[in-house]
Amino acid sequence: MTVLVTGGAGYIGSHAALALLDAGRKVVILDNLSQGHRWAVPAGAAFIEGDCGDYDLLRRLITDHDISAIMHFAGSIIVPESVVYPLDYYYNNTVNSRALAQAAVDAGIRHFIFSSTAGVYGEPAKTPILEDFPSKPISPYGTSKMMTEKMLADASIAHDMNYVALRYFNVAGADPKGRSGQTSRKATHLIKIASQAATGLRPHLEIYGDDYETHDGTCIRDYIHVSDLANAHVLALEYLENGGESDVMNCGYGRGFSVREVIAAVKDVSGVDFPVKLAERRPGDPAALIAGADRVREKLGWKPQHDNLEVIVRHALDWEVSLKTRQVVDAA
Ligand SMILES: NC(=O)c1ccc[n+]([C@@H]2O[C@H](COP(=O)([O-])OP(=O)(O)OC[C@H]3O[C@@H](n4cnc5c(N)ncnc54)[C@H](O)[C@@H]3O)[C@@H](O)[C@H]2O)c1
Ligand SMILES: O=c1ccn([C@@H]2O[C@H](COP(=O)(O)OP(=O)(O)O[C@H]3O[C@H](CO)[C@H](O)[C@H](O)[C@H]3O)[C@@H](O)[C@H]2O)c(=O)[nH]1
């Protein structure tokens, strides 16, 4: 009874693997290392280098490792890149997910947990965003994830497999014990970028627009600590194993911070007053995205431990410093 974690050499997958191991589960990680790192695979997890779209490999490893459930993190994650290379995103996020779902169904896997995104909502008319708001993604990235959600919904009706698609809001921070953190080679995420500016890896930070209809003109997001998110996956697995019905669930705390508030927190926690410049709006950024976060608490019994911006920032900064001392350069 082992959990297959695709993308487990990446940021969120490595934290989920840690949470599973901490909960006493056996873990096999499948990652093609296109973005992840071999050193990010937690001690105690088996590792297979390969592609989550490789049906034959999947069938073999499911049998060889007695896989009973799949957590599917592998994918391409940069929204603006998906606008430039949409077909790459549909291939990696949708076509490869189809192959994985096929292998799962053919091998009799009964539980499937999928990394989805608040990006499926596009530009919602209001916040907080509830799961039954319409899916109207505005980027190929969001559409590629929405399509996988729909495949899983249909497959779960036709086959003996239940699933949970967790729609993450803005994931940030790092393992409190320092075992993993944000490692993506092309990080675009605000708290990562601000942490890099605070630790001298970047000369400055740019604010993408300050003329949004928010209290200080900058965009508001619901930042969720990666370890709280990882725990939601462990709970989702228990829920499915106990016969829970298939569902989609937002993962956020239900509150938001503006870009300026995040920058202030990073400056405050780090004690570094790094330069900040104002830049043009980034295309496709909605003004405010805040999760309606009741479902994940009610259905999974999820109780976040790190719902505190300073704590999230502290852990992100500690991780950046540890990367520097390990001389692991996360090239921008
Ligand atoms: N980071 C966020 O804020 C965020 C928000 C919403 C959803 N998500 C989703 O969460 C998942 C994990 O994101 P992350 O931030 O950890 O990204 P990441 O890039 O750190 O991790 C993704 C991992 O998947 C691997 N991978 C990519 N394509 C693969 C393939 N075809 N076969 C095998 N391995 C492959 C990469 O090498 C990498 O290790 C993604 O599916 C992403 O869309 C992330
Ligand atoms: O250097 C930067 C980086 C970001 N921002 C701003 O900070 C906010 C957050 O941006 P991120 O890039 O950190 O995150 P996004 O909200 O764009 O997107 C993230 O969350 C989404 C869901 O809300 C999707 O899941 C997506 O995959 C994930 O990258 C945005 O207003 C952005 O314009 C800046 O001002 N400067």
Automatic annotation (TrEMBL):
Which superkingdom?
Bacteria
Q: Which residues form the NAD-dependent epimerase/dehydratase domain?
A: 3-252
**What cofactors are annotated for this protein?**
NAD(+)
MF terms in GO: UDP-glucose 4-epimerase activity
Query: Which EC number(s) does the record attach to this protein?
Result: 5.1.3.2
Q: Which Pfam families match?
A: Epimerase
- Gene Ontology terms: biological process: galactose catabolic process via UDP-galactose, Leloir pathway
Q: In which pathway does it act?
A: Carbohydrate metabolism; galactose metabolism
Family that this chain belongs to: Belongs to the NAD(P)-dependent epimerase/dehydratase family.
Keyword NAD among record annotations: yes
> Is this entry keyworded NAD?
yes
Reactions the enzyme catalyzes: UDP-alpha-D-glucose = UDP-alpha-D-galactose
What start-end ranges are recorded for coiled-coil regions in this protein?
A: none
Q: Which InterPro entries match?
A: Epimerase_deHydtase (IPR001509), NAD(P)-bd_dom_sf (IPR036291), UDP_G4E (IPR005886)
Report what the protein is called. Answer: UDP-glucose 4-epimerase
This protein's UniProt keywords: Carbohydrate metabolism, Isomerase, NAD
Q: What's the subunit arrangement here?
A: Homodimer.
Among CDD domains, the record links this protein to: UDP_G4E_1_SDR_e
